[in-house]
Amino acid sequence: MTLRRLLYLIPVLVFAGIGIGLALGLTRDPSILPSVLIGKSVPQFELPPVAGLDRPGLSSADLKGQAVLVNVFASWCVPCRAEQPLLLRLADSGVPIYGINYKDKPDQVDAWLGELGNPFKRIGADRSGRVAIDWGVYGVPETFVIDADGRIRHKFVGPLMPQDVDQTLLPMLAKLNG
Amino acid sequence: MARGRDRSGGRGGSEALIPEIGHYALVLALGLALIQSSLPLWGAARNDFGLMELARTTAIGQFLCLTLAFGALIQAFAVSDFSVRLVADNSYSGNPLIYKIAAAWGNHEGSLVLWVWILALYGMGVAVFGRNLPAPFRARVLAVQGLIGTGFLAFMLFTSNPFLRLDPAPADGQGFNPILQDPALAAHPPMLYTGYVGLSMAYAFAIAALIEGRVDASWARWVRPWTLAAWCCLSFGIALGSYWAYYELGWGGWWFWDPVENASFMPWLAATALLHSALVVEKRASLKSWTILLAILAFSLSLLGTFLVRSGVLTSVHAFAIDPARGVFILALLAVAIGGSLALYAWRAPQLQAGGLFAPVSREGGLLLNNLLLATACATVFLGTLYPLLLEALGGPKISVGPPYFDATFAPLMVPLLIALPAGAMLAWKRGDLAGVLGRLKAAFAITAIVAIAEIVLAGGRGVLAAGGMALAVWVVAGSLVELAGRVQLLRGPLRQSWQRAKGLPRSAYSMTLAHIGVGVVVAGITASSAWRGEAILVMQPGDTTTLAGYSFKLDGIADHQGPNYVARRATFEITKNSRPVATLTPERRFYPVEQQSTSEAGIDTGFWRDLYVVLGDPAKGAKAGADAHAVRIYYNPLVMWIWGGVAIMGVAGLWSLTDRRHRVGAPTGARARLAAAAARA
Q1: Which residue of B181, B312, B576, B670 shows the fewest CB atoms closer than 10 Å?
Q2: Do B342 and A19 touch (CB under 8 A)?
Q3: pLDDT band at residue B461, thresholds of 50, 70 and 90?
Q4: Distance from CA of A94 to the nearest CA of B (A)
């Protein structure tokens, strides 16, 4: 009889387990997509400059020597517009930012950067999107932190937020440069 | 929060206050729900008739308040009152009126209003039509409904208020997600919610029965029509959503095992099991505590679905309003509603009186097998949906579980279910004669074997799996017809006698046959459309022709097209078979400037035997200058309409069964019904 009573406890116990799991799940951010490339060297690539812009192109060789940000962006991407002021502020404070311009048209990039400002030291034009595939890009914008050895240390999916910069990005850069 | 001054420019003062009226109606509904969930319970415990009756008054009052609130919200959307934040975020003045109104529930806050409104509608249904329920039982059922309403109204008012104002009001709204601007999707949430929320009735009946410690045949008769109604709506809702995914998402697929789809499918599986097990309670007073558990689980899974969609633990194509604060609130709601009811179950269910015994081979045994397989299927879907989440919560890696898992686990569980279905439906209660039943199924078995062999021969020995699937479909349909023929003793006596018997059969008998035929039709549709599907992906420019499955597709031209709130590139395909015209299809690529989104509209020629499905893709890169070349995807989907047709048959069968006199316990007519109710009370 007591054994039978225990049987009736199973559903509520199972639910308690699931509830705890869901509560823990709430503490996670579902938008964090870990990149398998973290800790690895950046893929080998060489991108030409965007035609008509006064910025040189970008290749894997440029990503050695100091910690830098690589931002994947496009002029047709609305969230990119949102994070642009933050990138400009970072660039003003001396953080080197390189851009990979994803599936875009040169004249539109030119107009876009003219309107919003240009935080990028170098911009590689990835018109076919092939290099972005090697980088494991899901969508634009994405921002990678690269250390002085050319290894990917972190990846932000979606537009950068002020708290990302303050809590994650700047401390990480300080550590990499320190 | 609510402020009473006129901020709407030229509009009249009283009209501008409508959102505030809706807001107050919500607060009032919360107050009524609090009363409904407390005093009647106390009254039922102390046998105070006045307090018990309060449940009915407050249920009706709550429904009226929520109708007012829901109406106010729809009004705000219909007239595009952008001073309401929800309208500004989710609508646009240039959208067609139907999508302005559908936008009212195409978002998190508005869909919650719809949710509680339907809940209150059911509550009022019990208050008005539940006159033959014993007063204490009715009071307890309504109190449980009131508790659910309290939780959701508090959730809405504290975390997701639909009536918050924006000051100053923007000149226009931000638009409504274009892929949701679709007739099927305007109807999908109301249908689905009527199903989800309808399961709260089964839940409330189960809790009330646990409190009273008594489950009997009359309990099963009360709970079954409500469950059946909810199940029908859930079936229609899921089918609408799946059909929408088929023609709108442009992949030619119709089910993706997406977490949000699974969230609606799990309650459906549980409700299907519940419909069958409640039969055993009704006829044989057996499987009582299992049926109670199913009733609790079916609604718990609906709640869990709500949690998954809205809390932000999962990201999915159609998850809206990702907000952890809401997640914490919903999790607390779940802990009370599910944890509380399961704890009550653990405490009270062992005291339920055990019912009639039965042999393993019997109708009861068959229904138990049905329940075991459906419950296991539900558990596998549950595991596949939540496993990645739980794994990650416990510090594991981030993984996703996709269609291969579900295909590999779900389908094998359905095979024995379908094999057993015709035999189970023919077994006698208590102790059945399996050999005799199989003997009577000889005709069905012969038809099935002929179809299977013919298919294998026609396919040249290939496609054994497809032949097996079609054989199962034929088996279920033929077996169901044989069962019906047996009931009316067709060909076993004069035809006139069979006709007399057929007229005497209750509607529920016919609807069972019809529902099972619907199952067979769905199986045939799924098998054919996945096994014999044809697909072509290529680059075409005007003048090009390609052939697929014997049909010839000619791209006539691509032109610009102006819609009410979008611009489009529209291609025209002429389809011919053996040089005879079949159809003209016009797939489009639409761009919605307000929402800054592109959508693809497939061109579909729907037929009884097959669908032809054409999608206009991106302009092709590297095409010659001046050439208007596009990527084009063409699908040939045999019997694909049978999937939704079969579900529709099942849903219609359920509705038909609801009109059976035996189910209309809610609306007793005449002295006999009153007598029956009195007997049930005794």
Answers
A1: B670
A2: no
A3: low
A4: 34
Please tell me the distance from the alpha carbon of residue B429 to that of residue B313, in angstroms, as a whole number: 46
Q: How near does any CA of chain A get to the CA of B327, in Å?
A: 7
Are A26 and B297 inside 8 Å of each other by CB? no
- Under an 8 A CB cutoff, do B300 and A15 touch? yes
Residue with tokens 């599986």: B269
Task: Choose the mutation target among B353, B378, B389 for the interface with A, i.e. most A CBs under 10 Å.
Answer: B389
Report the predicted TM-score, pTM, of the whole model to 2 decimal places: 0.80
Helix ranges, chain A (H): 2-26, 78-92, 106-116, 130-134, 162-164, 170-177
Buried b / exposed e along A13-27 (16+ C-beta atoms within 10 A): eebeebbebbbbbbe
Asked if the C-beta of A3 comes within 8 angstroms of chain B's C-beta atoms, the answer is no
- Half-sphere exposure at residue B146, Cβ-oriented, CA atoms within 13 angstroms: 31
Chain A residues touching B339 at Cβ < 8 A: 12, 15-16, 19
**In this structure, what are the phi and psi dihedrals at residue B440, rounded to the nearest 5 degrees?**
-70, -20
Amino acid, res. B534 = G
| Cα A127 to Cα A122: distance, rounded to the nearest angstrom | 16
Nearest to B352 by CA among B224, B219, B228, B222: B219
CB-CB contact of B178 with B62 (8 Å): no
In 10 A of CB B185, how many CB atoms? 21
Superfamily of domain A36-177: Glutaredoxin (3.40.30.10)
DSSP H or E segment with residue B612: strand B610-619
pLDDT band at B526 (very low <50, low <70, confident <90, very high): very high
pLDDT at position B668: 40
Note whether A22 contacts B300, CB cutoff 8 Å: no
Please give, rounded to a whole number of angstroms, the shortest distance from the CA of B311 to a CA of chain A.
Answer: 8
Express each pLDDT in B214-239 by its tens digit: 888 888 888 888 999 999 999 999 99
ipTM over 0.85: no
Residue at token pair 């049930």: B680
A36 touches chain B (CB under 8 A): no
Measured between CB atoms, which of B335, B349, B621 is closest to A8?
B349
Of the candidates A11, A26, A34, the beta carbon closest to that of B313 is on A26
